[in-house]
Amino acid sequence: MAKINLSVVAVGLTLLLLAETWAQNPRKRLAPPKPPKAQCCDELRSLKVQVANLTSLLEELSRKQETDLMNVVRQIMELDQQNRQQEARVTEAESKYSEINNRVEIMQLQTLQSAPQTSSDATYDCAALYSKSYKISGEYKLPKDDFLGTPELSVFCDMETNGGGWTLIQRRKVGLTSFNRDWKQYKSGFGSIRGDFWLGNDNIFRLTRQPSTLRIELEDWEGRTRYAEYGFFTVGNELNSYKLFLANYSGNAGDSLRYHNNTNFSTNNKDNDKCVDDCASLRKGGYWYNCCTDSNLNGVFYRYGEHTKNSDGITWYGWHGSNYSLKKVEMKVRPMGFQP
Ligand SMILES: *[C@@H]1O[C@H](CO)[C@@H](O)[C@H](O)[C@H]1NC(C)=O
Ligand SMILES: *[C@@H]1O[C@H](CO)[C@@H](O)[C@H](O)[C@H]1NC(C)=O
Ligand SMILES: *[C@@H]1O[C@H](CO)[C@@H](O)[C@H](O)[C@H]1NC(C)=O
Ligand SMILES: *[C@@H]1O[C@H](CO)[C@@H](O)[C@H](O)[C@H]1NC(C)=O
Ligand SMILES: *[C@@H]1O[C@H](CO)[C@@H](O)[C@H](O)[C@H]1NC(C)=O
User: Fold this and answer.
1) How many domains does the chain fold into?
2) Where is the Fibrinogen C-terminal domain (predicted)?
């Protein structure tokens, strides 16, 4: 652009000079006779010099511009590099932070394991840990308790949401763990406690022997979140097919577990639903299938783009209907009337 302008100026100047020369010509014709050839050549020479000067001026100007441009580019590159250095510093800080966090978690586990356990202060859930001042969310190892007849168990505690004290019983967020599993696997639990998992029906039964609250947190692929809470939640033991009982819904996601109230648990090899269809096989999970679903939190994890095309996804009809598979789910319990 600037270069074009300069050439326009140059052409303009050249024209001006030519015009001047042209204007001078009549006078020069009146001047004492000179060899015409020499006159012409003098003028030509002077024009040539001027053109040469202009050309060199132009070159100088454009060189200067290029230098300016180079300077700007250099500055941009420097800024870019500073940016990158800053980013690297942030990343480093983040990884240091999570390392420290991990160490804190390990310390928590160790303190917990060395703490003497008696039947009166049994620590069999995250609410009990919270009362003992473990207030950082993360993985904890609950010790074996002969009095309660409970085995050692790794749990993930949410010590922040709505007062904390929550023991997670399920999580979906990574999508690599299949939830299309059999009765035995749903009984004892599967997956990884920091990723996707089912805590196990026997463990959920034990946790909810004390009157408990269930909280379900959902996130869609646009990053929006909703929750459903049931003031009362319990499941039966294996003899009772882990039958679900809930009451007192609150929240903003819709009451999509109510339809599953009072139904037995089903898996792909144990059809306990209230339907001619085999819901666990149709919906590809283990759940309290009725006929079949108003929610399917143990369904198939579908990634963005694939998440609206199937009816066996991770669904909550009360929010996104029957064919929208959610991005993230957490199910968590704590004793009714828990006081932070
Ligand atoms: C051309 O440049 C020379 C030296 O750079 C200078 O002496 C001369 O006066 C210039 N002529 C014009 C017409 O600008
Ligand atoms: C539901 O909430 C009401 C009012 O708070 C309470 O009286 C009732 O006991 C609760 N139901 C259950 C099953 O906890
Ligand atoms: C649930 O399972 C129990 C036994 O585990 C059975 O007696 C009951 O009929 C079942 N209920 C339904 C609705 O299938
Ligand atoms: C579940 O069923 C019981 C009756 O068995 C009822 O008292 C309770 O309110 C129901 N829960 C919900 C959320 O509707
Ligand atoms: C949901 O997906 C099924 C295929 O799995 C399709 O038959 C059905 O029409 C879809 N329903 C809606 C409401 O998009």
Assistant:
1) 2
2) 117-337
